[in-house]
Amino acid sequence: QQPVQSPQAVILREGEDAVINCSSSKALYSVHWYRQKHGEAPVFLMILLKGGEQKGHDKISASFNEKKQQSSLYLTASQLSYSGTYFCGTDLSGAGSYQLTFGKGTKLSVIP
Amino acid sequence: DAGVTQSPTHLIKTRGQQVTLRCSPKSGHDTVSWYQQALGQGPQFIFQYYEEEERQRGNFPDRFSGHQFPNYSSELNVNALLLGDSALYLCASSLGQGTDTQYFGPGTRLTVL
User: Fold this and answer.
1) Neighbours of B31 (CB within 10 A)
2) Chain B residue closest in CA terms to A30
3) 3-class SS at A81?
4) Which residues neighbour B62 within 8 Å (Cβ) at sequence distance 6 or greater?
5) Could you tell me if A104 lies within 8 Å of chain B, comparing CB atoms?
6) Is some CB atom of chain A closer than 8 A to the CB atom of B48?
7) Which CATH number fits domain A4-111: 3.40.50.300, 2.60.40.10, 3.30.2350.10, 1.10.275.10?
8) Are B76 and B66 in contact (CB under 8 A)?
9) By CB atoms within 10 Å of each CB, which of A8, A75, B81, B102 scores lowest?
10) What would you measure as the largest C-alpha separation in chain A, in angstroms?
11) Residue A81 neighbours by CB distance under 10 Å
């Protein structure tokens, strides 16, 4: 079951904040966040395991709400380099599962 | 530290032909997963290889097959190409079993005419 990402697209000015959501209709074991720039490979941002932990590095952080089966990616004080399409990949089964199911992506554009 | 590499970068084939794509995993990684990414969509899981065996398969027909070599590199083969097979094919490597952090290669852009 493909996770649903929202919004589909967002435009920010440099310095503004954004939140990208990833929701699943099934119980999640882990959520993986990637950013992909046009014509390039997806770049790993972070992985969150069930347990509701929040992770972050620099000005990008994420949370995982196990009860709501939802993860959110937070981008603060956005920079031009944050532009790209953000994908969440979900793992539904945990140990013994080898498959990530990706959402359709959220296109983020940061303008000066 | 070498990252994930894929070859070729671009490929143009005609319907009915066969194609082989190659992937070398990141140094120290032993697991390779293959994904198909259509334009404007997220990557879709094809299959994963570990210890030279296909460990799990996504919803793709048997025309899609793969192989992993003792040095952990991998090949993706697609037979009887269809127009709908046109996509970016991504290889991701990781360490061990499960869905540990996967690092993607630059991909192979396949165009089927």
Assistant:
1) 24
2) B99
3) helix
4) none
5) yes
6) yes
7) 2.60.40.10
8) yes
9) A8
10) 45
11) 9
What CATH number has the domain bearing residue B97? 2.60.40.10
Phi, psi of A80 (to 5 degrees): -55, -35
By residue range, what is the domain housing residue B67?
A: 5-112
What is the DSSP code string of B89-101? Answer: EEEEEESSSSS--
Quote the pLDDT of residue B96: 77
The reply to whether omega before B8 is within 30° of 0 (cis) is yes
CB contact under 8 A, A105 and B41: yes
What's the structural domain count of chain B?
Answer: 1
Q: What is the pLDDT of residues B33-76, one digit of tens each?
A: 999 999 989 999 999 999 899 988 999 999 999 999 999 999 99
d(CA A102, CA A104): 7
